[in-house]
Each structure stands twice: as C-alpha cells, then as structure tokens.
Amino acid sequence: MRKGQYLTFNIANTCYAVNVFRVQEVLPYEKPQELPCPDPLIAGIIRSRNTNISVINMRKKFGLEVKEADLDTHIIVFEVHDDENGSMTLFGGIVDSVKEVIPLDETDSEPAPELGASIASRFISGVGVKDGQFIIILNPDTIFSFEELSSIQKLSNNEKDSQSEIFRKEAVMQMERAARENEAMKKEIISENEELSDTD
User: Fold this and answer.
1) Is pTM, for the whole model, over 0.85?
2) What is the arrangement of strands in the sheet containing 109-110, beginning at the earlier edge strand?
3) pLDDT tens for residues 155-195?
C-alpha cells in the first residue's frame, strides 16, 4: 500500500479508501444522462470540466443490491492510469456517501487477504484499520479490465462526437436562419424603395 492521504467513502455500510492522487474530484450526485449501452455497469454520462465522463454504479460492480440515490450519494471521479502507453482515463463511481480524507501508512494497513480467484482480489490492494474500523483500500487501476476501460472510453468519445455533431447542426441552422432573415430584410427594403419611387 502506498503511504499518503486517502479519500474514504461508503458502499453498502463498508468503508473503502483510495489514494487522493487517483481522485480528480468529488461531485454531488446528479442523475447521469442515460445512453444506449449494453454494459449494465454504466449508469450513463455526466459532464464536468468540459469533459464527458462515464459513470459506473459501484454497487453493481461489486455485485451488491442497487439502492436509490439520496442526499448522501456522491460521484467520485477516479483517474485510471495505463502504464503501458502512458494514458489516463476518467470514470465516475457512484458511492453511497463520502466520508473524509485520512492519512494511512504501512503501520495502518495489511496486505489484501487471500480471496482466491474472486474478482474482488484483483482490485483490493490492502486492508487498513483506523479507529477500530476496517477500511478496504482500492486500486482504481485494477478495478476494471482493459476491455471494460476501452468500452468506457469509447462511450465517452462517442457521446462527445454526438454532441459535437449536434452543435455543428445547430450552428448551421442558425446560419441558415440568419441568411433567411437577411434575405427577407433585403426584400422588404427593396419593396419600400419601390413604393417610394412610385410615390415620387
């Protein structure tokens, strides 16, 4: 486990933590824009800091019962790093509540317990103890497989392209509308000038 500051949060009455260097921001919950997507983990997409971010239901990811969002629900924007090509992907994780930032080091934690071939063993990097409470330390880089991250990134890019196309079409429509209005104004001016000429 890496020594440092950790953001703690709850999912189904279990306390989790992630290194603050892997958290871009914590957002109050807003219902993600739903998109046609075959992956049931993806709740939709939000926009923050001019970036489209795919949002994952962490309860579903952990195989837990899904609950309705309430005032305590938040979206944590995680950074996932791909060391092979030096890239970084963002995804939002819906959590039940966000607690606080706490310091953790080697004396506060132990290696992850043996969980066999379970999915959980892949992304739990350790178990911490603070004030008598267990804290499950997560590694965002291993929460999702390469295929899942590729799907998430593709979804964000597709939505970005879709929005760009919408903006382009709106701009074209505005230009066409302005051109029609200018043409109508010209015709009106010409008509008024012709009426004035007939009067003279």
Assistant:
1) no
2) 97-104, 4-11, 14-19, 133-138, 124-130, 109-110
3) 656 655 554 454 455 555 666 666 666 666 666 656 655 55
